[in-house]
Structures are given as structure tokens and as C-alpha cells.
Structures
1.
Amino acid sequence: STRRPFPKRLAEYLQSSLPNQEEDPLTVNWGVSLEKPEYLPKGYFDLSFQEQVEVQVQNYLPDAIKWIEDWLDAIDDPEFNTEVLLVQYEQFVEDEEAYFDRILEFYGIDKSLWKFQPFTPQKADNPDHEGELHFRNARTDEWRDGFTTDQIEKAAQMMPERLLKRFNWPRR
């Protein structure tokens, strides 16, 4: 049996519904959800950055690991007749335009419908609030500076060897 791109209907929908890129460039933020996850405690956004990371390590990371493993199980299953494109943040950081070109090509979306706009890391606009907001700097190893030693150890113990090898991720 032939593997087919997933989800083909999504690619067709996107291609048919994209706005004219000269008048209304498509802007996509792939990592933002408008819904508050159930595991976030009341007052989460009042917690210190380190306390927020602790909540994420304890509550989000195990689910994220399982989600990735479930996809790898499906991809590695010869009965799963769906072609899946795996992409990594490291690829995005290395060459943003090639990263998106690869996704568009995979789904058969005409690249001329996409106006590439390079990512610019956000910075706090107001120097009086420096340190109050937690803007990421887009480094692939930023977690090493943002996690405490204990959080790095907890995350390292959770991470299956299979994922480290498959994605060439460091344990610590």
C-alpha cells in the first residue's frame, strides 16, 4: 500500500483559502494555543519563571513526551498508511525559510502563495518592566539557562533514550 500525505484535506483547504499574499500576508504562529491547559494552577501567571517551569516539567512534559512517542509508534508501524513529516525546532532555527518550504512542499502547497517573513525574537518593549516578562530568545539550548539543575535532572530522567537518539537531543 502507498503512504499518503496527512492530512491531504487540510493541505487542499489551506491552498484554496489562502489570502492574496501581496495584500494580506499569511502570518502563522505554530506554538500558541488560545486555550488555557487544565494543568495550569490558579495564579500560574503570577508565579515566578522558575515556578512556571516547574509546573511545565511536572505536568506538560510527560504528556508531550507521550505525544511524540505515539507519533513515532504510528510512523514506525508498517500498517499506518499515512506519510508524516517530522520537523524539529532546530531545523527552524538553522534555516527558517527552508523549514517552511519543506512543509509546503510536503503538503503540495504552492510556495508562491506563501510570503516568507523571518522570525524576530520578541523583546520587552518597556525597559521599566525588564525581567517581569519571560520572552524566549529562540536558542535551541535555552532550556539550559532557564531550567534549574533540579529541573534539568527531572526532565532528563523522563526523556526516553529513543527520542534522544531519533532527534539527536542531548540528555542534559
Note: Helices lie at 8-17, 49-76, 89-94, 96-106, 143-146, 149-158, 161-167.
2.
Amino acid sequence: ILNYSCFKDENNNQYYVGKNALQNNYLSFKLAQPHDLWLHIKDLSGAHVIIKSNDINDDILLKGARLALAFSKATINNNYEVQYTLVKNLKKIKGQLGRVSFTTHQSIIVLNDQQILKELEQIK
């Protein structure tokens, strides 16, 4: 049931990807810590991505955003907005498994080229 995916980059930063509401809920509210980074495509169905890193920089953020697009309803070779915030800013929406609201966030515009799946090592 909780068959979420996990990827790591060359610096051993870990990226957890939920592929359904149950996995998204688990990752965002059980596995994630308050200072982990959460990402999700804006206005489309898709994965919650949790980044576990001691030092999140622009490269790590971009990798997480690209994963959020790769596991979403986004079409290939188009740009999309990905929202991100610290996990501590997330709140469950009562009665809607896997849905969240947040008090503050930032956004990044990213091309959905699916190449991220070849660049990161899948470890789960």
C-alpha cells in the first residue's frame, strides 16, 4: 500500500515521492520532519515530494520540482509551476486524504522533460 518511491542524488540527498493520496499523506505527515521541504505541482493532481537534505540549494530544489512534475498529470515538454514550502507549514484538509493547505509557500517554474528520472538513482 505504501509503495512510495525514493530517489537519491550524487550527494545522497533523498527525494521521497508519493504516487497516490495514501502515500502523499504518509510522506507529508508521518515520514517528513518539520524542516524537510515539500513540493507539489500547482493546480494539477500529482505527487507530494519530500526532500531530506541538510542544505537545500537551488540545484536540489530544481531536482525535487522536476520529480514533482514527472509524477503528475503534467504533459511532457511544457512549463509548470511547482509550489514548495517547509513541511511545518502544511495542514491536512479534513476529510480529503492526501490534500493539504499551507500558510506560506514559494514557487518555481520548471520544464517537464522527464529527464530527472534518468539523472537520479531510484533506491525504493
Note: The first strand starts at residue 5 and ends at 8.
3.
Amino acid sequence: MLGKHGSMDELLRAIVDDPDADAPRAAYAARLIEAGDPHGELIRLQLRLARLRLGDDGFGALLATQDRLVAAHPERWLAPRERRVAWLRRGFYWRATIDEVALADAELARHPIVAIDAYDARVPDALLGSPLLLRARAIDFFYEDVDHEALPALFAHAPRLTSFHFSSDDPLAVLPLVPPAVEELGLNVSGDVEAICAHLTARRRLSLRIPRPDEAGLAACARLTQLRELAIVHPPAALPSFAPLESLRLVYCDRLPPLMPVRRLEIVSSADADGVVRALAADPALAAVEELTLGLWISPDSVATLARSPFAGRLRRLELRGFRLEDAELLAPLVPQLTTLAVGALGATLDLERVLGPRLAMLTFIEADEPVARRLADGCFPALGRVSTVESKAGASIIAERWPQVWAQLGDPERGA
């Protein structure tokens, strides 16, 4: 194990070779700080953040310090360029696009890249010779249908791969190609759902997206005890009993089926959004939900009903996309426990002191009326570490006076994405 006296190249090699280890990063950071390089302070800050959770004492202050540091050195981390890796974690980029990896950027090679995103179906020939592919643990082709004919060569050049997510019109043509060492699979399930599920039983962790499932297909999915993340498009009125899930996403949900306990719940699009929210507030399964995202146009009364639900006691992250928050009283029962809040807009007369609770570290909205934006920029909110908005929308320039807008570049510090 290298100590703080190893050469900079040796420390960097140790970081790349062992992405999970903190000690080489800490030693490297100390050397950079001695040399006056701000990258050292970023590594140190992000190592501290990685040991905390949203809502912990000091998390917001560290997050705000990190964002100011990044914004103060845009040439290092925020400068626009064609080949920019997506996220910084524990001081280094950990994820890149497939094109960036194929280009074998010398700068990128100095980072412990373990995940690769593909934004189209291509597998560039140059990718197969990249040393970054040799280190990759995860590859994600969720955005476009993968070219299954190119997969054998891709897998042969990615010996450390343990996670593979893909989209395909013919999953049964892809699944036999995936090496047994890949323990985590994510895919769109279309066609013969029961036959697809038969190919998944040997995997340790599954993420499935199912459009318009029939009863037999859902039952086959429910028998997969390794299933952890599930998305259903046009869910039926009743769901079978699943093993404990981490995440459930319901799209085009016009009637909420009785739910199973789940930690993360997302509901997007509904012809009866208020009815869905009222049903959710009355469902005992809500008691297990810590992160709730509602991509629905809902009324203030529905928000109040949700906040007053006797089953909402574990909610920590709440996203009400499209909702204009004007009355702080609507969320009053949840304010003491929320660590993250996202809404569509903040109304001019909103009482921020009654919304920004003692644990709220991150606030996100699309726009804010100028008076509330000014109060937010000038106020004292000790727990609040990051405020994110949309640059072109109302109130954004005022917010940016105090809160650097770096979320898109740095991603979510808790979810790692």
C-alpha cells in the first residue's frame, strides 16, 4: 500500500487501479494541497461528503463549499469541450461516454473510470482497444437499441464487467451473449416476457422496464427474487406480490394499484393525477417510501393530503415536478424530515423559513418569482447546501449570485448520478 510519500504518478496509478480505496486519494490530495492545486481540496471535500448522507450535520455546508470551489475554477472542471466526462466522485471522474473512451483521451486515462454510457447503438472499433474498457465495471446502452452483433467483441474486451444495461427490440437475441460474470442486468422487457425471465434467473440483481404487461408476464417478473428496480408503462389495476424492491416507476398510471413496500417510488403521467395522489396517501405501502417523485400536474389540496398522510413518515426526498409551491403550510408536516425538495416553481409570497427545514440540504426548481428568489439568495439557511434552477428561467440570475449552478456537471451527491 502506498503512503503519502509515494510519487505522484505512483499515487495516481494506485487510484486508477483500486477505485474503491480512499487512502491513495487522500494521500494524493495532501500532495496537491501542498502544491497549491485546488484539485487537492476538491478530493478532500468529496471524500468527506462520501462519508455523509443528505441531512447529516455539516452535509449542506460541505456541499456548498464544493460547489463554490468548482465554480471558482471553471477551466478545470466546467469548461465546455466535446469530450467531457459526466461526473466527479471522490475527486475524480468515474463515468464517461462510449465515444470519450474510444478517443483514448490522455486526461481521461488519469481518472478511475468504471462506468461507460452509450448514447447510440454503435460500438466504435477504437473502443475495443481502449485501456479504459479493460477497467469498466458497468456499461449502459439504455438510450438506444444495442447492436447485438457487436456485443461479443465488446464483452471480450471488458473482463471486469459486472453490470450491463441495454435496450433491444429482441432481448432474447442479446441475453445469451451476456457473460455469466455480469451479475447485474437492466433491460426493457418486450415480446415473450416469460421466456426472457427464464434467462434472468442466474443474475444477482435485475432492473426491468415493462411496457403494457399482461398478467402472465407480470407474474413471471414477480417470481424473480433478484429483481430490485422495476418500471411499468401502463400498469394494471392490480400487481402481483414482488420480492422487496428498491425502486418502482409507474408511467401512464391512471389508477394507482395497491403497492408493495419500496424505497424509491416514481409516478409519471396520469389522466387522474389527483386521484392517484389521494390513493397513494391512503396506501400503507407509502410508509416504506423514502424518495418520492411525482411527475404529475396536481392540485394544492392533493399535496396537502400527501403531506398529512399517516404513512409519509419516512419521506426524505420529495420531487413535485410541475407543481407551483405558493403556500408553505401545504408541506408543513414534512418540513422537519425532508433532505431534498424539488418543485416546478416558487411563488412570490412563499414563506421560505417554513419550507426550508433543519435537514433540507438541496432545493431544486425550474423558476422562482423575483421576490422569493431574492429572499433565498439573501437569507440564512444553515442546512441548505445547493439550490439549483434553470438558467433561462425567472429568478435564475438572482439565485446564481449565491448558489453556483453546477448540478448538471456534478450530478447528485447521494445517488451518484
Note: The chain has a mean pLDDT of 89.
